[in-house]
Amino acid sequence: MIIRALEHKDIEGLNEIHERHYSREFPSPDFMDKYICAFVVVNDSGKIISGGGIRTILESVILTDKDLPIKERRDALLEVLKASIFIAKDAKYDCIHAFSTELPWLRHLIKIGFKKAKGEALVLEV
After folding, report:
1. In terms of C-beta density within 10 A (0-12 exposed, 13-18 middle, 19 or more buried), how is residue 38 classed?
2. CA triplet 54, 11, 38: central angle to 5 degrees?
3. DSSP-derived pairing of the beta strands 2-5 and 48-55
4. From CA 73, how far away is CA 65, in angstroms rounded?
5. Which residue has the higher pLDDT, 100 or 76?
6. Do 42 and 1 meet the contact criterion of CB atoms below 8 Å apart?
C-alpha cells in the first residue's frame, strides 16, 4: 500500500467510488480545484483504496456583546453576514461555515440561511 499525489488518471476511479458510496451524501469533490494538496492510497495492484485532499474552508468567527438587546445583536449579525457573503464570493468560496453551541444563535443562523451540515463537525488539533 502506498500514498501518492493525485493524478488525472485517478479521477475516474474516485468518481466511481463516490457514485457507489457517497452520491446521496454530497456532490463529488473536484480534488483538482481549490485543494492545497490531493492524494490517493493505492494497494499493491494500483487499485485506489482511498483518495482525499486538504482544502481551505471559510469560517465565520463572530464575537458579540451578549449584554446588548437581542434585536441589536441580530441586526449586527445580518450586517456581518452581508459582508461575509460579499467577501466569500469575491474570494471564490462556495460556502461559509459557522459553529455555535448556543441554541438561540443556531436558530438565528438557520433562519437567515445556514443549513445544518450532514454528519458531525470534528476538529483535529495539530
Report:
1. buried
2. 20
3. unpaired
4. 8
5. 76
6. yes
**pTM listed for this prediction:** 0.72
Domain edges within the chain: 2-55, 57-126
pLDDT 10s digits, 23-45: 998 899 999 988 999 999 999 99
C-alpha 99/C-alpha 76 separation (Å) is: 17
- List of residues 6+ apart from 114 with CB closer than 8 A: 98
Give the tens place of pLDDT for each residue, 56-68: 989 989 999 999 9
User: What single letter denotes the amino acid at residue 32?
Assistant: M
Distance CA 116, CA 106 (A): 9
Give me the sheet containing 48-55, strands edge to edge: 2-5, 35-42, 48-55
